[in-house]
Structures are given as structure tokens and as C-alpha cells.
Amino acid sequence: MTVSTTPTAGSPVLRTQYQKSVAAYWNTNQQDPVNLRLGEIDGLYHHHYGIGNYDPSVLAGPEQTRDERIIAELHRLETAQADMLLSYLGEIGPSDRLLDAGSGRGGTSFMANQRFGCQVDGVSISEYQVDFANRQATDRRVADQVRFHFRNMLDTGFEAGSRQAVWTNETTMYVDLFELYAEFARLLPFGGRYVCITGCYNDVTGGRSRAVSQIDEHYTCNIHPRSAYFKALAANRFVPIHVIDLTSATIPYWELRAQSSVATGIEDPFLTAYREGSFHYLLIAADRV
Ligand code: GPP
Ligand code: MG
């Protein structure tokens, strides 16, 4: 057996039993049509949700092509979510370097490269995802600019101050936020930007609701309270500049997904959690000072 290590630290990529179980989930539960059929549309494979209103005509048109229209619409909303995240990275030039922390099958990384023309590195603790995304990079002829690495976002091994911006697109529920932001503070120079889209539970309504616990169980994750983000950012020299509650913008995506052939069963817990107010879908953009 080989134990892959990060180049600088020499420590194993998967450090804990929990991380091994998360990696096992993403290495094996990968054939869900909710992700593959959407990705096949244009080769952007996302592992995050969507925002914006759906076009109601997708439900009204001819029955035989209805599901196809819904799938294309879900994909459009997921791409809109990634576009919004990227629009908060600030001024990025072709010579800047970006980090996608928890890069999945690479969708947001490829969009960033397209948008800014710069180099992007993605890290994931799933070797399946890293291989998949690197194959996509080759197919898209951007393998010299967009690279995916089997590395831990808590210990990326990249050089200190090497990134103009870092983002997490729905990945922070797998890690300790204090450890994560300590690593990002190392990677970003003064004035660097961090953007996060996440689901977090509502401190005002109390602890994890039943619906939030069901989401945790489904994905083997640990959704953090909203407050944890701001405590961990402040403790690591990050100052929020934008905080946007996207909860109402993501509900239509879940309503549409619930009516599609690619629904996975997690739609009801998301809709319940958002509607009852126990859970928020948040964008946070913060500057490293
Ligand atoms: C999965 O995206 C996203 C997560 C596991 C993070 C959890 C997010 C929260 C907001 C709590 P996916 O595209 O792999 O999920 P699915 O297969 O359900 O579409
Ligand atoms: Mg998905």
C-alpha cells in the first residue's frame, strides 16, 4: 500500500478516520445522475447547488422532453451559483493563482480559468475526483493551467502567499473552520480574497434541527452554525466584506429538483430546513488583512 503525502509537510493526505470515511464516500458514491447527467450537458461537472428562479415553461412543455428540460435548467442554476461565487473574487489577472479548496469534479475551477485566464489549482481528498477532474482538464485542453491534486485543504503544501484568491464552494462542512482558515491565511497575502458559499445552521433558532441532521447524515458532513464562520474568520485575520443570504435564491432550485427524475431524496430535508429557518445558504467574501 502506498501512503500519499503532501509534498511539503510529508504528512498523510487522509489524517483521521473521519477524513477516510469522507474520502470513501466521494470515491464510491459517484454515479448519481443528479451530477453526471447535468455535467454531460457542457462538461462542467458541479458538486454544489443552484440559485435563481427557474423558467416555469420547463414544467409546462411536452411530456416526453420534460425531464431533459428540467435537468438542463438545474444545470443552468448550478452554473449561475458558481458564476456568482467567482464574481466576488475581486480583480483577478492572468498572472494570479487561485485555489479551489474541495474541487470536486472541477466545475468551478474551469469556470474560473475561463473567466480570468489564470492558473487554478484544485485540491480534493477523493482520488476519484482528482482523476476525473484532471481528465476533464486534458479534454478541455487546459491541463497546463488547471490542475487537480490529491491533497488535504487543511494542509495544501502550496507556498505561503502564493494565491490571490481562495474559495470553498460547499466544502467547509467537512472540516474544522479554524484549521481551514489558518491554512488559507497562510496561502493568501495581505489583501487576498476568500469566498465561501455554504449551508450553515441558524444560531438564533438553536442547535441542529432534524432536517439539518438529515443533511449531515446524507453526506457524512458536519454543518457548522453560522457563528462559527465569523469566529474562525476573525481568529485568522479575515475581515468579511460581503455576507449574502442566498436562502431564498436557492429554494426554487430545490423545488425544481424535487420534481425531476434525478432527485436523490435529500430534497425534502433541504426544503424543510430552509423554509423553517433552521438553515441558511450563505455567501461570505472576506479579505485577508
Ligand atoms: C454536494 O453536492 C454538496 C455537499 C456534500 C455539501 C453539503 C452542502 C450543504 C449546503 C450542506 P453534490 O452535487 O455532490 O450533491 P448531490 O449529489 O446531492 O447533487
Ligand atoms: Mg449535485
Give me a quick take on this structure.
The protein is of the alpha/beta class.
What does this 3D model show about the protein?
α6 links the parallel β2 (119-124) and β3 (146-150). This protein has a 7-stranded mixed sheet, with helices on both faces. It has helices at 17-28, 33-39, 57-60, 66-87, 107-116, 127-139, 177-187, 210-219, 226-235, 247-258, 267-276, and strands spanning 97-101, 119-124, 146-150, 165-169, 193-201, 238-245, 279-288. The chain is built from 11 helices and 7 strands. The mean pLDDT is 95. The protein has one domain: Rossmann fold (3-Layer(aba) Sandwich), CATH 3.40.50.150. α2 (33-39) packs across α4 and α10 (247-258) runs antiparallel to α11. The radius of gyration is 18 Å and the shape is globular. The protein is an alpha/beta fold and 289 residues long. It binds geranyl diphosphate (GPP) and magnesium ion. The site of magnesium ion (MG) has 3 residues, from α2. Geranyl diphosphate (GPP) binds at residues 32, 34-35, 47-48, 170, 173, 199, 215, 219, 221, 223, 264, 266. It comes from Micromonospora carbonacea. This is Methyltransferase domain-containing protein.
Strand content: 15-25%
Instruction: Please give the alpha-carbon distance between the first and last residues.
Output: 42 Å
What ligands can be seen in this structure? geranyl diphosphate, magnesium ion
- Report low-confidence residues grouped into runs of 5 or more: none
Class by helix and strand content? alpha/beta
Total count of domains: 1
Q: Average pLDDT value?
A: 95
What is the assigned CATH homologous superfamily? Vaccinia Virus protein VP39
Radius of gyration: 18 Å
Helicity, in percent?
A: 40-55%
Sheet with most strands: 7 strands, mixed
